[in-house]
Write a structure and sequence with these properties.
The chain is mainly alpha-helical. The chain folds into 2 domains: about 20-225 and about 480-510, Growth Hormone, Chain: A, CATH 1.20.1250.20; about 235-475, MFS general substrate transporter like domains (Growth Hormone, Chain: A, Up-down Bundle). Helix content is about 70%, strand content about 0%. A two-stranded parallel ribbon has the order 1-2. α8 (about 160-190) packs across α19. The longest helix has about 35 residues, at about 300-335.
């Protein structure tokens, strides 16, 4: 088994079709991307027992006879992304050393096993077990599973790095789009007098994710040293690189870290409040009635909730599409130019929605664009790291960089929530609360823009030859663009396995978004 999982065992032959690798990456990212959609479980679990609500976090963690509050369970979401960053930083070098097959299987065991342990915690009504299983163990799977496919694709697409990372990280954004409606349907099927069906749904998802992620991990291959894409003799996979220990001490690394921190901080907090924000600002204008949010009737609340869900659905679609579109664009204009454009546009979008009475179409368009650049920032950053430091250690370097995501996952929501709560406490009307928040977030993006513009190429003396293949080695060309019949069959099977679930999930999201567009 050790030999089967070894890095050397998965070196691909010269005629291996590199387009078989992206579906493997997508299979893993579509599964772990459900971290974004775990909130689908919170409301059903908040009345799982039909008992009194827990009065404190301590009681929720120790008692089994009171219903958990949403605020108790949302800590799982925080754990996901804090542990993701820590795990990626800790095990990034290990991922590069052992290769994507072993790393992918470990990610599978942690993510699927963590969800299964979380399901046991839900079944026993032990919140600490849900935290430990889904949040901590699942978070480790998130970290390893996030960087493994990205690192692998960068090695196979040295000529189209933005496209490669966009394909993988688009899958991570789409994971919730598939997993949330699937979980909802499963809970409806399993719901009964003994509960809302949440733990059964989690177990089923854990099993399905284990199958998909295992198939993806086993399908990974690595290009041989000196391999070059078809018709790209001048672009050789591997070659010179900057070691991780050196790269993380360069100003370039920390400037890119700052860019990611500011881009994520300026988006994640406000996107998390997308539905209440649009309801509070526009009130009955969302469904054609001149009524304030505070004066909604029950019927108006239902109509507003549908419009709010539509706004969230639209943001989700642009978040996913932006991961592919912006990252692919970076192959044409360069990574530094891309971030300069995105950060400038992001700040401008927040400026456009500052007036006290913004129009709904302008507001929706601005936040759709912001969401697309939030996703695009995640997708293009691994390609930028590969440009700066080479692909040999990019998984390890990317892992260290993701600590910026963990930091932003705390800083962004806290900033937005603090300013919002302070203004509400001062008696500011709900529709006027968000102006200073938008200014603050635009300022964060301006800081990120300065950091992006300061990035320069890494000094030549910091680069080293790849120990697995010197940069001067003769390139090993792929057989050609056209895959033989059997390979085309594998392409169709692999891509079909990931595109069909994405299309299924997208249909639900588009249905929600149309509710808002129809207003």
């Amino acid at each position: 088994m050790g030999d089967f999982l070894s890095r050397n065992r998965i070196i691909a032959p010269r005629d291996h079709d590199r387009w078989l690798v992206p579906p493997c990456a997508l299979a893993i990212h579509l599964c772990i991307g459900m971290a974004y959609g775990f909130s689908v479980f919170w409301l059903p679990l908040s009345h799982a027992l039909g008992a009194a609500e827990c009065t404190s976090l301590g009681q929720a963690l120790t008692a089994s006879n009171c219903d958990w509050r949403v605020s108790d369970m949302v800590w799982v979401y925080t754990l996901f992304f804090v542990v993701l960053g820590a795990a990626a930083a800790l095990w990034g070098s290990w991922v590069e050393r052992v290769g994507p097959r072993r790393a992918g299987l470990v990610a599978t065991a942690c993510w699927s096993g963590g969800i299964a342990i979380g399901a046991v915690g839900v079944s026993l009504h032990q919140l600490w077990l849900l935290w430990l299983g889904a949040g901590v163990i699942g978070g480790i799977g998130l970290g390893i599973g996030y960087i493994t496919p990205v690192s692998t694709l960068l090695k196979w697409f040295p000529d189209r790095r933005g496209l490669a990372t966009g394909m993988a990280i688009m899958g991570f954004g789409g994971g919730a789009m598939v997993g949330s409606p699937a979980a909802d349907q499963l809970m409806k099927a399993f719901a009964g007098s003994d509960g809302p069906g949440a733990w059964q749904a989690m177990l089923v998802l854990a099993g399905v994710y284990a199958l998909f992620m295992t198939a993806g991990a086993l399908g990974f291959r690595l290009p041989a040293p000196g391999w070059a894409p078809p018709g790209k003799a001048e672009i050789v996979a591997g070659g010179r690189h900057v070691p991780m220990a050196v790269a993380t001490r360069t100003p370039q690394f920390w400037l890119v870290w700052c860019v990611l921190l500011t881009n994520v901080s300026a988006s994640i907090g406000i996107i998390g409040l997308a539905s209440p924000m649009v309801l509070e600002i526009f009130g009955g204008g969302l469904f054609g009635e001149a009524v304030a949010f505070a004066d909604f009737t029950d019927a108006q609340k239902a109509a507003a909730a549908a419009a709010g869900a539509g706004f969230v659905g639209l943001i989700s679609l642009f978040n996913i599409a932006g991961r592919f579109a912006w990252s692919s664009l970076s192959d044409r204009i360069g990574r530094k130019a891309l971030y300069a454009v995105m950060l400038t546009l992001g700040a401008a979008c927040y400026g456009l929605v500052l007036p006290a009475d913004p129009t709904l179409p302008l507001f929706v368009a601005a936040f759709a664009l912001i969401a697309s650049m939030y996703g695009g920032g995640f997708a293009a950053v691994p390609a930028w790291l590969a440009d700066l430091f080479g692909t040999r250690a990019v998984g390890a370097i990317h892992g260290r960089l993701l600590t910026a995501w963990s930091t932003a996952g705390v800083v962004g929501p806290l900033l937005v929530a603090y300013v919002r709560d302070a203004r509400l406490a001062d008696g500011v009307p709900r529709d006027a609360v968000y102006g200073p928040i938008f200014l603050l977030l635009a300022g964060l993006l301006a800081v990120g823009l300065v950091a992006a513009l300061l990035v320069r190429p890494v000094r030549d003396d910091l680069w080293q030859d790849d120990p697995e293949g010197p940069a001067s080695a003769s390139p090993i060309h792929a057989a050609g663009h056209a895959a033989p019949g059997a390979a085309w069959g594998l392409r169709l099977a692999g891509w079909g396995a990931v595109v069909l679930p994405l299309a299924w999930g997208a249909s639900f999201t588009i249905e929600k978004a149309l509710v808002l567009v129809a207003q």
